[in-house]
Design a protein that fits this description.
The complex is a heterodimer of chains A (327) and B (325).
Chain A (H helix, E strand, L loop, with lengths): L10 H4 L5 H27 L3 H18 L1 H4 L43 H37 L1 H15 L3 H12 L3 H27 L3 H8 L4 H40 L7 H10 L2 H4 L2 H29 L5
Chain B lengths: L2 H29 L15 H10 L6 H13 L13 H36 L4 H15 L2 H15 L18 H5 L2 H34 L2 H8 L4 H13 L1 H16 L1 H7 L5 H10 L3 H29 L7
The chains are: A mainly alpha (327), B mainly alpha (325).
Chain lengths: 327, 325
């Protein structure tokens, strides 16, 4: 019997001797330990790279900002700071406080009288929400479809891959634009449209992995031992493709944030939430460029760039783990 | 499987993909909220006149009749008439597509020449500071949204320094005999420079990174050692022997990337006010002019689908090791 505190290398074999009632507990423990070991090892390899560490710190920073936004932002993102003479329409904005002594706004205000710094802080919520949710779903759906197609092969594989081919024929941004115009401009609809298209690349890559994995002896052995298809897919195939799913998830963060910013910039963004894309859109609508109001349109772009490049760097770091030839 | 039957099967797949994209698009637009006839039918019209207009667009018929007609027309590349201007959609496409192609192709040529050369150099000087900075720059270029870089360029060089025009494809009021007469004028190049440079900066990263990893692979092969043993100069090995062998993955990647570039033209054209297909699609969507939106989208999708097909064929043609299974 495997000792609990000191796992033996024969843990797999020893499992057979475990008493009936202990079996499920033990299997859980073993699974947990395997996962923990794999993840710790990969985490170590990942954080070995300075760039990846910086990227993770950046993402963590923006996450903290997003969570504590109400405490960091001095004003509401869509609260007017002052009223113009005519009432609602306000066109003279305040300059950043470091440029003019009268101004009390760190990055000034927009032409509509909103505090830019507060918008920037709240914008991190939209970006991270889109990025993380899209990453989870693209990686999740893509992995599931890829594994199913690769494991079963035949007609199922054909059908699923034709759907993927079809999705590959759709240009990303135009499709998202049309879907958002159809479903109405809200952050969730943008997210939905992005997810609908993005899982295609994950599915294709995972499928080709699954195709080769299913021919391996350990899968054959599981089949002979009478394991169900679901058991084989979830216990034997999934852990082997997991690094790839993570990789595509990390890239999906970046692509989703870029897509959301682009759609918002075009003017199909959610009118009720502030994102970095909608900030850029309104700065353009009020010709901040011509007035040289750089404090309005420079900061949101830098934030987008920082988050996106962090996603790419983490993805690349992970790529080096999954594909040692790159190292 | 022989090569011929591979091509035939791939062609059939191409047809099915076109049909699927068209069908999905057709139903999406019919499901769109808002009355698409609101623009062509004015409130002052009598109900009879309004009915007549709706009938002239075939919008009163059952959905499946509209669908069959759509398929029939799509086969003859007839996408109907704009609800907005009454112009045939085919004409709209012919007006805007060349503009998009000129912008994309010029950006692409610059991006791929620079990207390939830099990729060869970074693959060769692996581990140097030059490699690190170039790769980080390429990654940054791919991470910054193109429309944002475009905004910054417009602000710095357009609004502040005044050396580039703020929008459009040529000075207002100019007319030219033909498309070709137009694109060979200095004025046109002046307008083209900024958007093309921004795009080239963005697209450069992809060939650079592919070329770099492809170079690394080639450099580890034996024939490079043979070249060295023969006493060839480093430069000759780098460009004549290594780079030429590393070029293969670039060609297929370029075909695919070009398709997506045309599809992704939406943002850069919006920022620079470039009268291209992507911007026209956005405008059509915003004013619910669905024949135009549908037609322009189909062209963008077709570019991707056809170039993916070309990439598949090229791959088999250029690399004799590829087998068709």
């Amino acid at each position: 019997m495997a000792t609990q505190d000191k796992p033996s290398i024969f843990a797999d074999i020893d499992d057979g001797d475990v008493d009936q009632e202990d079996e499920s507990v033990d299997r859980w423990r073993r699974n947990l330990r395997l996962w923990r070991e794999t993840l710790t090892e990969q985490w170590r390899m990942l954080t070995d790279d300075l760039m990846v560490r910086l990227a993770m710190i950046t993402i963590a920073f923006f996450m903290a900002v997003a969570v504590f936004a109400p405490f960091i932002a001095p004003h509401g993102p869509l609260t007017r700071q002052y009223e113009g003479d005519a009432g609602i329409i306000i066109v003279d904005w305040a300059e950043p406080s470091f440029m003019s002594a009268e101004s009390e706004y760190l990055l000034g205000t927009t032409a509509e009288g909103f505090d830019i710094f507060s918008q920037l802080v709240y914008g991190s919520r939209a970006a991270l929400l889109v990025g993380l949710v899209a990453a989870v779903f693209t990686a999740g759906i893509g992995t599931l479809v890829g594994l199913t197609a690769g494991y079963y092969g035949g007609k199922i594989d054909d059908t699923l891959m034709r759907i993927v081919d079809f999705l590959y024929g759709m240009p990303l941004l135009p499709t998202v634009i049309i879907l958002v115009a159809l479903l109405g401009p809200s952050l969730w609809n943008i997210l939905l449209a992005i997810i609908l298209l993005q899982w295609r690349s994950t599915a294709r890559v995972i499928r080709s992995q699954a195709l080769s994995l299913r021919e391996r002896p350990f899968v054959k052995a599981a089949q002979v031992a009478g394991a169900s298809d679901w058991h084989i897919i979830s216990r034997h195939l999934a852990p082997n493709v997991l690094p790839l799913s993570f990789l595509y998830g990390a890239f999906a963060i970046a692509w989703a944030i870029l897509a959301e910013a682009g759609v918002s910039f075009i003017g199909l963004g959610d009118p009720n939430t502030v994102s970095w894309g909608t900030m850029l859109q309104s700065s353009r609508a009020y010709s901040a460029l011509d007035f040289g109001a750089w404090w309005w349109f420079i900061p949101p772009g830098i934030c987008i760039g920082l988050v996106v490049i962090s996603g790419f760097l983490i993805g690349r770091g992970y790529e080096e783990i999954t594909n040692p030839e790159l190292r | 499987m022989s090569k011929a039957s591979f091509v035939v099967r791939r062609l059939l797949q191409l047809g099915v993909t076109f049909w699927a994209v068209g069908t999905v698009l057709f139903f999406l637009f019919r499901l769109m909220p808002g009355d698409p006839t609101a623009f062509v039918v004015s409130a002052q019209m009598t109900p009879e006149a309004r009915q007549q207009v709706i009938e002239s667009y075939g919008l009163n018929e059952p959905l499946y009749v509209q669908y069959m007609r759509f398929l029939e027309n799509a086969l003859t590349l007839n996408f109907g008439q704009s609800f907005h201007t009454n112009q045939p959609v085919r004409e709209v496409i012919w007006t805007y597509l060349p503009n998009t192609l000129v912008l994309m192709l010029s950006a692409f040529v610059v991006a791929y020449i620079l990207g390939i050369v830099l990729g060869v150099l970074t693959g060769w000087y692996r581990g140097s500071r030059f490699e690190k900075t170039t790769v980080v720059t390429a990654l940054t270029a791919r991470s910054l949204p193109t429309f944002y870089v475009g905004l910054i360029v417009l602000w710095l060089f357009g609004a502040t320094l005044g050396v580039i025009p703020m929008s459009g494809m040529g000075a207002a009021g100019q007319t030219y005999d033909s498309f070709w007469a137009r694109i060979f004028t200095l004025d046109f190049l002046h307008h083209l420079a900024a958007p093309a440079a921004v795009l080239a900066f963005y697209y450069m990263g992809y060939p650079l990174l592919i070329m770099r990893s492809s170079m690394m692979e080639v450099l580890s092969q034996d024939f490079i050692d043979v070249c060295r043993a023969k006493g060839l100069s480093e430069r000759a090995i780098m460009f004549k022997h290594a780079a030429r062998n590393a070029l293969l993955p670039i060609i297929t990647a370029a075909a695919i990337a070009l398709g997506y570039a045309v599809g992704g033209s939406v943002l850069i054209e919006t920022v620079f006010g470039w009268p291209g297909l992507g911007r026209e699609m956005v405008n059509a969507v915003l004013r619910r002019d669905f024949p135009v939106a549908q037609g322009t989208f189909m062209v963008l999708a077709a570019t991707i689908i056809i170039l993916n097909f070309v990439a598949d064929l090229l791959y088999g043609y250029l690399d004799p090791r590829v087998t068709y299974e």
